[in-house]
Structure to design on (331 residues):
């Protein structure tokens, strides 16, 4: 990319990314802290990738997603996944009109811009598959008609890590379809004090204003394609992914008995996209290795399958990804 092209892209990034600060400020009026989660949700939205949130109850996951939808003026649907949920409850179904003797289509809650699939692991495989197919194909078939889902379309799924009874964990192949898996942590002491002061009172929550229009998000997605990413950064992405598959080739022989399967090719694609989106949030026209490192754990932690030996040693997939990040040479 020439200096002229880089300058042009830089000017466009400065213009098109101006809404990011307004969006973060507006969500911050309602959500205390959780900046990490909010930025990762924006990365998923900008890079057109779905996000899996994992955290104990009460960490403002639903509030954050709802605030995000309100702040960009899009439709939002929260779906509580339960063991008796059916695919038709999610996608919609054919309804028979006895008076007219004909069927009509009743669309389900999936026909929205932002979907919160709350506790996705509480529903059986058929429902999970119905949702994940919609995520992948961006379309829904009801009867003999197929409907495209409107852009932007983002699925944010949550799962509770502390309850195992009555749950149906997502298979690795299905989890792989999520661009990011975010671990949502407890707030700091100062943040929790502010949360208590805000929420320990009667009355409804603060209303969120729409400060961004959906077409701005779609335009920003186009701009991501123009961000400059050097070949050395691209090679770094490939090195990280290949190190998860063949750690011995990168001097990490200790990881060999701990890794069952390394990250899939989706990891390479999503690392590239997420790093671009991270640079966009920083109002930069180019991607740095630090952008890649910032999103690598969220992109790869659910794509590295560990062995029983790793579980016995209490080594998690996140630990393995972190060791890869600490070992692979940064360009």
């Amino acid at each position: 990319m020439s200096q002229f092209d880089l300058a042009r892209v830089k000017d466009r990034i400065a213009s098109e990314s101006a809404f990011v600060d307004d969006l973060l400020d507006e969500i911050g009026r309602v959500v205390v802290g959780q900046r990490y989660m909010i930025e990762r949700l924006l990365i998923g939205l900008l890079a057109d990738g779905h996000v899996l949130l994992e955290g104990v109850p009460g960490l403002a996951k639903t509030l954050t997603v709802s605030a995000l939808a309100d702040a960009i003026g899009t439709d939002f649907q929260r779906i509580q996944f339960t063991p008796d949920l059916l695919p038709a409850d999610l996608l919609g179904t054919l309804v028979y009109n006895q008076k007219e003797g004909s069927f009509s289509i009743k669309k389900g809650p999936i026909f929205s811009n932002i979907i919160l699939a709350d506790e996705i692991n509480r529903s059986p495989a058929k429902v999970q598959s119905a949702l994940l197919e919609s995520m992948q194909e961006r379309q829904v078939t009801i009867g003999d008609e197929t409907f495209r889902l409107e852009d932007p379309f983002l699925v944010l799924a949550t799962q509770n890590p502390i309850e195992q009874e009555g749950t149906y964990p997502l298979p690795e192949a299905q989890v792989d379809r999520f661009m990011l898996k975010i671990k949502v942590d407890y707030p700091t002491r100062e943040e929790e004090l502010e949360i208590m002061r805000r929420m320990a009172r009667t009355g409804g929550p603060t209303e969120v204003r729409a400060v961004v229009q959906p077409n701005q998000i779609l335009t920003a997605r186009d701009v991501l394609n123009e961000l400059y990413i050097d070949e050395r950064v691209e090679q770094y992405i490939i090195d990280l992914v290949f190190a998860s598959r063949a750690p011995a080739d990168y001097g990490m022989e200790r990881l060999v008995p701990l890794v069952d399967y390394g990250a899939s090719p989706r990891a390479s694609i999503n690392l590239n996209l997420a790093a671009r989106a991270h640079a966009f949030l920083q109002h930069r026209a180019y991607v740095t290795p630090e952008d890649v490192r910032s999103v690598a754990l969220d992109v790869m932690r659910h794509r590295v399958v560990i062995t029983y030996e790793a579980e016995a040693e209490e080594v998690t997939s996140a630990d393995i990804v972190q060791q890869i990040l600490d070992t692979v040479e940064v360009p």
